[in-house]
Amino acid sequence: MTFRNDIDITKDLIADHGLKPDEYQKILELIGREPSLTELGIFSAMWNEHCSYKSSKKWLRTLPTEGERVIQGPGENAGVVDIGDGQAVVFKMESHNHPSYIEPYQGAATGVGGILRDVFTMGARPIAAMNALRFGAPEHEKTRHLVSGVVAGVGGYGNSFGVPTVGGEVEFDARYNGNILVNAFAAGLADTDKIFYSKAEGVGLPVVYLGAKTGRDGVGGATMASAEFGDDIDEKRPTVQVGDPFTEKRLLEACLELMATGAVIAIQDMGAAGLTCSAVEMGAKGDLGIELDLDQVPVREENMTPYEMMLSESQERMLMVLRPEKEAEARAVFEKWELDFATVGKTTDDLRFRVLWQGTEVANLPIKELGDEAPEYDRPRTEFKKPRPLGKVPSDFDVANAVFTLVSNANGASRRWVWEQYDHLIQSNTLQIPGGDAGVVRVEGHDTKALAFSVDVTPRYCEADAREGGKQAVAECWRNLTAVGAVPLASTDNLNFGNPEKPEIMGQFAEAIMGIGEACRELDFPIVSGNVSLYNETNGIGILPTPAIGGVGLIADWSKMARIGFEEEGQAIVLIGAPSQWGSHLGQSSWLRDVVGRIEGSPPPVDLEHERKAGEFVRNLIEQGITRSVHDCSDGGLAVALAEMAIASGIGAQVNQLNDVSPIETFFGEDQGRYVVALDPRNLDVVWEKAARREVSAFWIGNTGGDSLILGEARAISVEALIQAHESWFPDYMDDEPSAAATA
Amino acid sequence: MKSAIIQFPGLNRDRDMIAALTKITGQAPELVWHRESALPEVDLVVIPGGFSYGDYLRAGAIAARAPSIKAVKKHAEAGKLVLGVCNGFQILTESGLLPGALMRNRDLKFLCKTVHLKAENTDTPFTRAYARGQVVACPIAHHDGNYFIDEVGLKRLEDKDRVAFRYCGADGAVNDDTNPNGSVNNIAGILNEKGNVLGMMPHPENLIEPAHGGQDGRILFQSLLEAVA
Amino acid sequence: MKARVTVTLKNGVLDPQGKAIEGALGSLGFDGVGSVRQGKVFDVELTAGSEGEAQDKLKSMCEQLLANTVIEDYAITLVE
């Protein structure tokens, strides 16, 4: 086979590379000649939405990314946040939506692999993972198959790699029928003085390739992640990458060993558009040129062209700049772990990105401009229109029946079927497994410290009002961390939206970011890393706007942390941060959608000052040892919060009802900034005193005990029946689907 | 008690086992790389859990052919103690040190949860601190834990009291509902003929401190401490 | 020399994967599927002086690694 690098660059070829005519014009101006085929490939990889953030950059800049504890914000493989005692937590969240729709097992697996690599590239050993998954309607023909494959893929990779998966979200909505979301989060622990970055330093130093061999996997994958799906989706199958957690586990151990030797100057993992993006990034950040000799690249397939090698997305690969005097030591580490190690290039002082293949130069481009001069758009966007106010809501719905519906339907039922397929115990540090408000992992080697993790967003709120929805996603994540007793430190965002070339989508995107920014600023919860996934549309139907927020919090003394279940019988149940009628806002509520069958109104507004006050109050109660049983009110309002506390503990509760207030609003309103806590009644006076001082409302709404949940005048609900209903939906739903792992 | 841990690429619960042995015995285990053909002088050799070689051919199959496993066999022949947990159990069956095989879980899914085990034979160095029939909590985390052995082999195991642990309910009930993975006769762990090699799928090393929500896993390590004291 | 080694579960050993695939075929509307057993195929390239020698080598590979003879049978076919 012959490869021709100098073919005519036709209009079709340009379009096939996802480049617009004006973008191609810019390339011509930048290099003063027609690009070679390899160069065109390099530009398409660097300038697509996925790598260049060309539609989103303008808005991402408005996010708060700094804080007292922030060591590294966005722009590196992952964010780095100080947790004291010379240690840092390193974390990020990233999407793998399109690949997971095409091949759910491998798509999800490689998504997990990619995010873990981002974390250990920085020198951190991964200690926790989470994922936010969104699927189409349960009754859609593809949903079961996708759920089965994605869950098996997430587990297949994470379990084998050896990181506990401690939390996440699974949601169903018809708007994801043709475009599921797979967002993977990972966090690791590192010493603050041993963080590794991608910035190359020094001229004439070896650029070293490590890890798995290069194949044709995913050639054009980053371009795929930036395109809408059509019906020809099945034809795109060959670009799917295959994950190899065994190699990644060895790569982790080898990298950490290598880093400990002092050999590593710079390191970058090969993710989207592998060799291209990683090499350009390392050089451009360090104001250096890079020369690559592709004949040295370990390959897995025959006759690979330079074009394919530069765009391959084969997994489990790293690029490093090493101290030459340590090269032999480095090689020994990689040989011990039986991984490929090859010097594939060197740093230069000419600020060019040069690629050699079979003795010819197949690309020679200005390295800084490849990244810096990527197009940036201020795309047109439509003004946000407030949703029509919620019409009259019937009030004669049975409270007990509604509770049953909400804890046992697709979106309210237990996710045990999912998280039991994830190893959530490995590493022996897990203090709270999935199913609570946040996953909690203790900091190894420290007697009392622990980290809490949560990922949250309520897409239906974002659809109705993107700005309030953006705020709510941040607030809910912050609240979930608070509910276990953690001080929220920082967050990562995974912004999943439709086609940004549509003004209404761009409008949603901008509004959501403004809401997120406002909330992060108010709550001291800076965004330190993240990922944008646009073009989540199939045949013109966009997903619900889904800006998932992953947060990390620090618990000073985990022996005091709170859990979601009632602790014991005979405790007082106190509702904190609620309005005088306890609950009121039914617009966009779960009750309205799932019980009444209407999607309507504005989402509940988020009062950030109130949010902070209520959260600090609850955290103080936990830290003072006054309560060990806390749950925030979210989907399904107060009723579902109480039901989940009963389900988690097997302990019932008797809760009052207010006179002259609709029990539907009281129990199912989704007013924000509320927590339910249970505590020894002897502590109530302390609670009232603290609440008054902090100007936060606190109402004694009932007591724990018995084997049923009684909400006001509603009929008693047996806790056992609730548990049964809550646990049944998922296994019943998945019963007919053969496990994806069987055929994987 | 002196112990050693065999390390294969792809194992990932080695760190958990090192932590447990260190915390309970007060002595860190020696680490043995899989290519070593000799073991240090120790009382106990542990093959921990994980996915050696990605479990790519069959769980434990490739690791079972490593030089270090030959050394483990010699160690066992000398009457010294060998413990294989999860992937370690799979490696022990693949290497022939223990009979039977571990197949894909009945439901075909990876399963991570805390289950109950019944201590059956309590007259071994691994189980002497249990009461016979004692029910303890223990986490499992595996994809291939479905223990299989042919009828003749099964009879031999049962007749010679070589089943160390069986999956059961909190009340001790041993039946299909309390069998998480389809193992024949709910078998969770077995002994070799001499009783100095134990293979088990569950992870006692993950339940040894209050932070883990219980300490039932300690009993196994306490048995070993008593046995070699 | 090229050979194909097929490894299948022994009769009498439960094959949950095969069962699941069998069920899936049924739900896809394929009638008349009796049973499905899942196995593994290895394509091996090797050098050997004769077919007999190749057979011996392959047999030994199967016994020692490719198959777990506690639960699996194997078959060897020389392709060329």
Write the layout of secondary structure elements.
The complex is a heterotrimer of chains A (744), B (229) and C (80).
Chain A (H helix, E strand, L loop, with lengths): L10 H6 L4 H11 L5 H11 L1 H4 L4 H4 L9 E3 L6 E6 L2 E9 L1 H6 L1 H18 L3 E11 L7 H19 L3 E8 L8 E11 L14 E6 L9 H4 L20 H16 L3 E6 L4 H12 L3 E5 L12 H6 L5 E6 L4 H10 L3 E9 L3 E6 L2 E7 H6 L26 H10 L7 H4 L10 E3 L6 E4 L7 E7 L2 H6 L1 H18 L3 E10 L6 H20 L4 E7 L3 E2 L2 E2 L3 E10 L16 E5 L13 H7 L11 H16 L3 E6 L4 H13 L3 E3 L7 H6 L6 E5 L4 H11 L3 E7 L3 E4 L5 E2 H16 L5 H4 L1
Parallel strand pairs in A: 4-5, 9-12, 17-18, 24-27
Antiparallel strand pairs in A: 1-2, 2-3, 3-6, 4-6, 7-10, 7-11, 8-10, 9-11, 12-13, 14-15, 15-16, 16-21, 17-21, 19-20, 22-25, 22-26, 23-25, 24-26, 27-28
Helix pairs in contact in A: 7-8, 7-10, 8-10, 10-13, 18-19, 18-21, 21-24, 22-25
Chain B lengths: L2 E5 L6 H12 L4 E4 L10 E4 L19 H11 L3 E5 L1 H8 L6 E3 L7 E9 L15 E8 L3 E3 L2 H9 L3 E6 L18 E5 L5 E4 L17 H11 L1
Chain C lengths: L1 E8 L6 H12 L11 E7 L5 H16 L5 E7 L2
Antiparallel strand pairs in C: 1-2, 1-3
What does this structure look like?
The complex is a heterotrimer of chains A (744), B (229) and C (80). Chain A is α+β, with helices and mostly antiparallel strands. Chain A has a domain at 562-737: Alpha-Beta Complex (Phosphoribosyl-aminoimidazole Synthetase, Chain A, domain 2). Helix content of chain A is 35%, strand content 23%. In chain A, helix 10 (245-260) runs antiparallel to helix 13 and helix 18 (466-483) runs parallel beside helix 19. Chain B has 229 residues and is of the alpha/beta class. Helices cover 22% and strands 24% of the residues of chain B. Chain B is built from five helices and eleven strands; from the N terminus they run βαββαβαββββαβββα. Chain B has helices at residues 14-25, 67-77, 87-94, 151-159, 218-228; strands at 3-7, 30-33, 44-47, 81-85, 101-103, 111-119, 135-142, 146-148, 163-168, 187-191, 197-200. In chain B, strand 3, helix 2 and strand 4 form a beta-alpha-beta unit. Chain B is globular and about 45 Å long. The model of chain B has no long low-confidence stretch (mean pLDDT 96). With 80 residues, chain C is an alpha+beta fold. Chain C is elongated and about 50 Å long. Chain C has a single domain, classed as Phosphoribosylformylglycinamidine synthase subunit PurS (Mth169, Chain: A, 2-Layer Sandwich), CATH 3.30.1280. The chains are: A alpha+beta (744), B alpha/beta (229), C alpha+beta (80).
